[in-house]
Structures are given as C-alpha cells and as structure tokens.
Design brief:
The chain has 939 residues and is mostly beta strands. The protein contains six helices and 54 strands. Strand 36 and strand 37 form a beta hairpin. The chain starts with a strand and ends with a strand. The relative contact order is 0.12.
C-alpha cells in the first residue's frame, strides 16, 4: 500500500489564497443577487452631457446611490439591491428629470437613458415607465422568474424551482433522477452541474445518497414561495465572476423588509376526494391522500430608511397512500415448494405430464424458509402465470401479487429571517438565516420495509457593501451552508433478530432475479433493508468583489474561497449486507450469485479547499457596442481525508486495478486542478442604436469543480471493506462484525488454501482532470412593441473530462471465432445463449479458468470483484436552436413561451445511477467507450 502526500501543492495553494486575501479581493457569488442601472444622458439635440448628477433611489428602503456622467454622457450605478427605483438626473442649466417605474431585477443591467431640456433646475419633469424590454447589454435575464410569477402561478407542492422550466434550453429531468427534488438540464449540462445560490451563498439540499445536488427538502420541493422575491437562471455566456460549476447558475434573491409593513398568511389543502382510481388500485380503491401547506410572512421597518426585518415560515404535511402491486413469493414457495419445471430446470422429464405441480425442492436448505416467510408480505392477489407464447405458457411461476397502499408520511418546516441595515449612504449590511428541516417515512415497494430519513439544510449569509466613491465599490460576503441527511431502512413488521445477515444490525437486502428460467420473468420485489447511514456536508464561504468605473471601462475583479467538509457514515455502503440469487430455486438452495457487505464500518471525513480569482473589463467601444473580456482561474487542493483514512483505487501500467488501494490523507496521486484558466468573452450590439434590436454573442470555458467525491470512496479496504462472498450464505450465517475480516486473496493465499476474501474496491480516478466545458452562443432579439419581444438564439458546447462510472475490472469481451457459434452470457446470466461467429460476447459462468474458479477468475484482477469507479474520461457535445417570446405585464396579460430544438451526445448522462436512472449504472464496455456514445438521457 502507498501513502501519498503533496505538501508542495498544498503550500502553493495556500500561498495563492493568502495572496488573494492580502490584496483584499475574492470572487463573489453574491454579486449575482444585485443589479445595475446605466444609461446615457443627452440634451434635446442628441448631444451627450457630461457631469450630470444621476441619483438612484430604492423606493422600498430609501437607499440612494449617485453617479456622474462621463465625457460620453454615460453613467453606471452598480451593486444595487433589486426592486423599484426612481432615477433623478440634474445639472445646472437644465430642468431636473425624474424617471419612475424602473423595476430592477436580479442580474439585470437596466438601461435608463435620459434626455434633459434646457431650463431651471428647480423645474422638474417626471416620466413614468420601465426600462426597454430589449436587452442591449451583456447581462442576462432570459431565465428570470419574477415575484408575481413565483407567487401567482399555481405550483404543485409550492416548489418555486419548478419554474426553471420556463427558460429556453432547460429540460425538466426530475422523472429520471432517483433523488429528492426537481432536477433540470440547462443547455445540455447534467443536473448535478447546476449551482443554486440564495443571496449569494450556495444553497444545498440533503439526500440519503450522499450526493447533495438541489436544495429540495423531505417534501421533494424547494419551499419558500413567500420568502423568495425572484430568481434568475443564468444559462450561458455569463461573465468571469461566476464559477465552480459548468451548468446553470440559479441566482435567488430573498424578500426583505421595506418602509411599508407587509405580510401574508396562507393555508392550502389537497386531498383524495376527487381522485380517480388508477390501474393498480383495482382491488383496494384510490389511495388516501392529504396534503396541508400553511404559513405566513411579515416584513417591515425597525427604523424608517435605516433598518428592516423580514421573516417567513412554511409548513408542509403530507399523508399519501402509495399504490403497490408487488411481485412476491407465493404461499407454496414459503414452504419450500416450486412448480416442478422450476424445481427441475435441467431434467424436465422428471415432471412427467404435470410440469406445473408443486414439488419439494431438492437440496432444500430449511434455514432459508424463515427468510422467505419474513422478508416479503404474503400475497393477496393473483398468481403470476407464464405469458402466452412462451415455453410452459399458463403454468404457475412460484410468485403472486401483493397489493397494498401503505401511507407515506412527510413533515417539512421551512423558515427564513432577514435583517437589512443602511448604515449610511456609503455602507449597507444584510444578514440572513435559512433553515429547512423535515423527515419522511416512506414504505418501500416491499412493504415489509420502510425507509426513514431526515433532511436538514441551513444557510447563514452576511453581505456588506461599501461605496468608496460613485466609481469605486466593494461588496464583502461570508456564509455557511450545511446539508445533513441520516437515513435507515428498518423492517416495518417484526423480523426475528437471528435473520439479520450481520449480528447486531438490521435485516439486509435480498434480490431474486425471476421466477421463470426459460424467459426473462418479472423479478421478485427486492427486500431492501439497511442500517442507518448519514451524510453531512458543510461549506464555509468567503468572498469579495470590487467594481471600478473609468471612462468607458467597467472593471471588476476579485476572488472566492471555500472550505468543504464532508463527513460520511455509509451512504454508499451495504451495512446490513446484500445478497443476490438469480432464481427462486437458487434461493431455496441458498446458492447466491454473491453476497457483499461492509462488515467493518469506519466513519470518514473529507476536506477540501477551493479558490478562485478573476479580472474582467466591460468596454463601451461605442454607445451601441459593448465588449467584455474576462479571465477566471480556479483551483483546489485535491480531495483529502482528515485522519489519513482515504482508500482509493490504483492501476498498473496496463490499466488493471491493483488489489492494494492507495492509502493516505490525499485521495489522489496527482492534483491536476491547481490552475484552471477560463477565458470569457462577450459582445452586445444594438445595430440601430434605438434599443429595439440587440445582437449578443459569447464564448467561455467553464470547469465543474469536484467537491462531492466521498460516496465513491467510503467502501474500500482497510477502513470500510466491502467483502464479497460466494457459496451458501443465509442458511449458515450471520456474520459477527467483531471477528477480524479475512485478508484479501492473493496467489500465495489461494495456493495455500488459506482463509481469504475478495473485496469490491471502488474510487475515483487517482489522476483525475476536472471536467471542462467550452461554450458559445449567438442571440438576436427584437422588440415588437414596448412590452413584447422575440429572441432567436443558438447555443453550442463541447465538454471533455466528464465523469463517467466504469467497472475497470470487467471481463474483457471476446469475438466469437467458432463457425458453430459461441456460448455467451457474462458472469451472471442464466441461462447462457449461443451467439453467431463474429459476435462480440462475454464468456458465461463456468467457462473461465483460474485458481479461484468462476466467476471471479473472469476478471482482469482475479483477486478483486467489480470496481465501481468514477473516471474522468468522457466527452459530450450539445447544439441547440431556441425561440423565445416574452410579454411584460400590460393590460392584465403577461406570458413567456419558448421552443427548443436540441441534441446532446455523451457516453453517460449522470455521475451515478441515482443521478440518471434511465441508463446503465456504468459504461457497458469500458474497453471501447465509443460503443456507449449516443443521445444523452436529457436530450
């Protein structure tokens, strides 16, 4: 075993971060929670006017900011909180002009041009109207969902993130993700590549798989409709200030207190009174359903124009009957009986003229009957028969239906508190605390087991904005994010303690492949128990952003630092054990394919530093032409275990996994994320100069920093070994976890017939490269009326080093050279089948040779089982054409509609089976990746 340290890399990383702090600049996520108001001041002849004092007043809080127009008549007021504004322009010799009705939204650069008339400054001209609907700047509001849309549109479950789907190029991928929440692919990126921020600080949800992705809680919804003012989904062509993820950035702004006392009280009820019965409710009727959502909000001034407070609470309660029509062993099976043709698959003549009669299984292990009678509910539906057209059609299969609708219970409580303080015209402070806490009791399809989980997410954020001068601003931010989720799957009915696979633990998981050997019959519902596991992820974030305006240049620069703490106890582990049987007959004879379990369990804690700096310049080359040039550099110090307990997979020079893992504090042999340079370029052009047309283009490189690698590393020897055993299992055990685990098999131990075991080792690529995306876009926007605009756009991207799950200890496929055909079936297929000459196939069970025998000897490393690893070898391409039509509210009507025609190609559409369920759990042939390239799951 090897111990790896990288003190030099750590020193360089620390030096870079300290240098950034010493310069007083760090990148900020929080700048995305503000907006900018800019424009040009002219006289009635069209000549620009320098030296005009422009005042922007936030009418909700009384906050005022000023700017002077430059020699080209341009002004810019940056880092403004969102909301309603009043713009005042004044200069001696001209009448004062006041523009009202300017509603600034998150991430927007609202263009407010002013025309002054000659006259006394004591005279005032008031104009009311919003900024032009056509966006002639480099800011992006195509993914904006405003306050009225969030609060007024009907949302099933009141999860405001459901509205992400209204943005062009955004695909709702929720049905294909086996995790809590709503999940979206944004312009061809995976759901796990999106970033959610709330008031500038990352917002994560917790889930039982140890893979925090979206901010949803136990309810599966992202609550807080009354707490959220608006959000903006940045999809592509964003500036160098945004990073960490390569997908969409969901920038969320919470509601705040204002000078006016405001609030709400609500309660929503939903039940099953008018529900229709579905296909599976034929015997028991429509399942009961009751959902209750209630809460309220209150905000207002503590001191007018100075201090404000806002609070929100929302409760979610649900009781839902889950219709279940599960396939379970029939009553005869529970006595050790099977239909004769199943009990004698190789000697059907033994059944005579009645192959469907139930007979006692030969070589029956009586110790298996208690498992058969306790791990599945008794059937109360029809016996399953072999389908017509198949061999033995109409005969019993040893299985029957168990029909039920057990109740799922969900509780979730969401709360937000926000305090804002305008210390002076130069300083403003904002502090927020958010918590989402819930639990769920969720019966499995096998109703003898119930999953019990808790999800708790918390966010604390602080933001201070200081105005050194109208052209020099700074925003300092700090925050803490925590996502915590313990989960267990205990039995929901009494199961004797002696039926646990491992002494002292909950009953484990049993999988039976099917009831019919001659055809692929439906599998028995899994008995899926497991011991408690837990995952806790903490993020400590600090950032600072500087804006300087000089003439026609708007400079921004800064950096960002984040400390990652991930503490795990088994989200990816089989603490209670799992055993698989290919057929009912094999179960009664206790002849499993394999048994695997994490008998020894050691909690692990992973740590990581992430950092970045950026510089950017937005240049007004002409009044109607803006060019942006930026550079971002991201870095990490790898992935490290706090007590030196990282165990990761290693490979020899030919790519075969080694038996002994990498051991040490660092999980990587090489850190290739010390300097990830990302240029960003953008252009915005108003061809006519009237604000009715806009052409925007952009190019950028983005990296997807890997800060969630723990769940692939917590099942490796020696700290959390996943042992793989074969031969009779349940009838001869339980395993005593106090007993020392046998050593890993090797040539000498096998030759000496010594007691040894095969372990299943996984991990992440030890020389991994960070996933990288090159993205480009071109958009044309045209204002039809003052409140109606049409946009046509193209978005393309190419990604490389994408993460793909692979089994690098898979048997090598062979090409059949026998003219008579070859026997194929892989290491677990029953029965084997014949394939024609020239076909690529896997050798079936029993045909591999080696000292360990089949199927282990089929593997390149015969002393190791499957290697479930995350390798960063994938590529992905995306091209899309989008049309969007937006109408702002007027005359009681508003709408937003879009059409997307897109195609995405990749090897695999998710980092795990939970992140994309409509695909294989791993690359089918790791020795020829090209065979796996095809249409992405979300395309």
């Amino acid at each position: 075993m090897r111990k790896i340290t990288d003190l030099q890399a750590l020193f360089r990383f620390g030096t870079a971060i300290v240098g950034l702090i010493a310069l007083g600049t760090c990148l900020v996520f929080a700048q995305g929670s503000t907006g900018t108001i800019s424009g040009v001041v002219r006289d009635i002849s069209g000549a620009v006017i320098p030296g005009v004092m422009v005042t922007a007043k936030h009418t909700e809080s009384g906050l005022t900011r000023t700017a002077l127009t430059n020699e080209t008549g341009a002004y810019s007021v940056q880092l403004l909180p969102v909301g309603a504004y009043e713009i005042t322009a004044e200069l001696a010799g001209f009448k004062q002009q006041v523009r009202r009705g300017i509603n600034l939204v998150v991430g927007q650069e609202a263009v407010v041009n002013v025309t002054l008339e000659v006259g006394s400054v004591a005279e005032t001209i008031t104009v009311t109207g919003e900024a032009p609907i056509v966006n002639t700047t480099l800011s992006s509001t195509a993914g904006l969902v405003n306050e009225s849309q969030i609060k007024d549109l009907p949302l099933n479950g009141r999860g405001f993130d459901q509205l992400m789907a209204v943005a062009p190029g955004t695909i709702n991928y929720t049905s294909n993700v086996n995790l809590n929440g709503n999940f979206f692919s944004v312009v061809g990126r995976r759901p796990e590549e999106n970033t959610f921020t709330i008031d500038g600080i990352e917002y994560l949800g917790a889930n039982s798989a140890g893979q925090p992705i979206g901010p949803a809680g136990s309810s599966g919804q992202t609550l807080g409709v009354d707490a959220v003012r608006e959000f903006n989904l940045l999809q592509h062509s964003y500036g160098a200030e945004y990073g960490k993820r390569a997908g969409g950035h969901v920038v969320t702004v919470t509601s705040s207190g204002t000078n006016q006392l405001h609030g709400s009280v609500f309660e929503y009820l939903r039940n099953s009174a008018l529900d229709a019965r579905n296909f599976f409710d034929d015997r028991i009727g429509a399942p009961p359903f009751q959902r209750n959502e209630f809460g309220g909000s209150l905000g207002g001034p503590i001191k007018k124009d100075k201090a404000f407070l806002f609070g929100n609470y929302e409760g979610f309660r649900e009781r839902l009957g889950k219709s279940s029509k599960a396939i379970v062993p029939d009553l005869q099976f529970r006595q050790g009986l099977l239909p004769c043709y199943l009990a004698n698959p190789t000697t059907p003549v033994a059944c005579g003229s009645n192959p469907g009669q139930y007979v006692t299984v030969s070589n029956l292990k009586s110790g298996m009957l208690p498992f058969a009678n306790n791990f599945w509910p008794e059937p109360n539906g029809n016996e399953l028969l072999v389908a017509p057209g198949l061999s033995n059609a109409g005969l019993p299969t040893g299985t029957a239906y168990a029909i039920s609708n057990p109740k799922r219970a969900i509780r979730e409580d969401f709360g937000l508190a926000r305090f804002d303080y305008n210390a002076s015209g130069k300083d403003s402070l904002s502090v927020k605390y958010l918590i989402s806490d819930g639990d769920k009791t969720d019966p499995r399809d096998n109703t003898n087991f119930t999953q019990i989980s808790t999800n708790r997410s918390q966010v604390v954020s602080l933001q201070e904005t200081h105005v050194f001068s109208p052209t020099f601003l700074n925003s300092l931010n700090g925050g803490f994010t925590r996502a915590y989720s313990p989960v267990s799957t205990p039995p929901s009915v009494p199961i004797p303690a002696n039926l646990s696979f491992i002494t002292g633990r909950l009953p484990g998981q049993i999988t039976i492949g099917g009831g019919v050997s001659a055809a692929a019959a439906a599998g028995i519902v899994v008995a899926n128990g497991n011991d408690p596991t837990a995952n806790a992820l903490n993020l400590f974030t600090g950032s600072d952003d500087v804006r300087i305006t000089r003439g026609n240049h708007s400079f921004s620069f800064g950096g960002w630092i984040q400390r990652v703490q991930e503490n795990q106890s088994g989200p990816a582990q089989n603490k209670s054990g799992t055993v698989a049987y290919p057929r009912l007959l094999d179960f009664l004879q206790d002849s499993p394919t394999a048994f695997n379990a994490n008998v020894v369990v050691t909690p692990v804690g992973y740590r990581q530093w992430l950092g970045a700096w950026y510089v950017q310049d937005e240049m007004k080359l002409r009044p109607n032409l803006t060019f942006r040039l930026g550079l971002r550099d991201e870095m990490t110090n790898g992935w490290n275990e706090v007590k030196g307990r990282c165990a990761n997979l290693l490979f020899d020079s030919t790519g075969v996994p080694l038996t002994d893992p990498l051991i040490g504090s660092s999980c990587l042999t090489e850190n290739n994320a010390k300097a990830l340079l990302q240029p960003r370029v953008g252009l915005a052009w108003d061809p006519t100069g009237t604000g009715s047309w806009a052409v925007r283009a952009g190019f950028g490189i983005h990296n997807d920093l890997q800060d969630n690698l723990a769940f692939r590393l917590d099942s490796n020897p020696p700290f959390n070994p996943r042992v793989v055993l074969s031969g009779p299992m349940l009838s001869q055990y339980p395993i005593n976890p106090a007993s020392p685990m046998p050593p890993n098999c090797d040539t000498q131990l096998v030759a000496a017939r010594a007691n040894c075991a095969i372990y299943s080792v996984g991990g992440v690529e030890p020389t991994m490269h960070t996933p990288t995306v090159q993205q480009w876009s071109l958009a044309l926007e045209r204002g039809i009326t003052q409140n109606l605009a049409v946009q046509v756009s193209y978005v393309g991207s190419e990604a490389y080093h994408t993460m793909i799950p692979m089994n690098l200890n898979a048997p090598h496929p062979q090409v059949c050279a026998n003219p008579a055909g070859c026997l194929s079936g892989g290491v677990s297929r029953t029965p084997a089948v014949m394939v024609a000459q020239g076909t690529t196939y896997l050798a079936p069970t029993g045909t591999c040779t080696g000292s360990l025998g089949a199927p282990i000897a089929c593997y390149p490393n015969p002393f190791q089982n499957k290697s479930n690893s995350q390798m960063f070898e994938g590529t992905m391409s995306y091209n899309s054409f989008n049309v969007s039509v937006v109408k702002r509210p007027s005359r009681g009507l508003t709408f937003k509609t879009n059409y997307t025609f897109a195609k995405a190609l990749d090897y695999n559409s998710g980092g795990s089976s939970n992140a994309s369920t409509n695909q294989p759990k791993a690359i089918l042939n790791p020795y020829n990746l090209a065979l796996s390239r095809g249409i992405a799951g979300f395309s």
